[in-house]
Amino acid sequence: MNEKRVNRISEEIKKIVSELLYHGLKDPRISPMTSITRVRVTRDLRYAKIYASILGNQEEKESSIEGLNSAKGFIRKEIGNKIDIRYIPEPIFILDESIEEGIRMSKLIDDVNKNNHKDEPHE
């Protein structure tokens, strides 16, 4: 399948699932600090890997992924209602910790910079 078309479908699914997070899903397990970072649809449009970033402790992350997995059928139906394609991809939710890892790395860099400034002799 055309790479551009797959990318457009991925972006459209990202918009739809993001909208559902804010307005459509009422599962209390899903953290309000959940956001969809990216979607990768397979070339045959059978599967959509949906990467979710969830701020919170490990228990909140696990319960949010569990809640998203239990809503797969509803999410897939909504995708089918909003996108006119022959096959509606099966959503696969993956925890994306890249944002938290970036924050952690940024803090480490800031700490190193602060320590370097303390060690410099003042003239």
TrEMBL record:
It holds the Pfam family RBFA. It comes from the Bacteria. InterPro entries: KH_dom-like_a/b (IPR015946), RbfA (IPR000238), RbfA_dom_sf (IPR023799). GO terms for cellular component: cytosol. Keywords: Cytoplasm, Ribosome biogenesis. SUPFAM superfamilies: Ribosome-binding factor A, RbfA (SSF89919). GO terms for molecular function: ribosomal small subunit binding. GO terms for biological process: maturation of SSU-rRNA. It is found in: Cytoplasm. Belongs to the RbfA family. PANTHER family: RIBOSOME-BINDING FACTOR A, CHLOROPLASTIC-RELATED (PTHR33515). Monomer. Binds 30S ribosomal subunits, but not 50S ribosomal subunits or 70S ribosomes. One of several proteins that assist in the late maturation steps of the functional core of the 30S ribosomal subunit. Associates with free 30S ribosomal subunits (but not with 30S subunits that are part of 70S ribosomes or polysomes). Required for efficient processing of 16S rRNA. May interact with the 5'-terminal helix region of 16S rRNA. This is Ribosome-binding factor A. It comes from Paratissierella segnis. The lineage of its organism: Bacteria, Bacillati, Bacillota, Tissierellia, Tissierellales. The gene is rbfA.
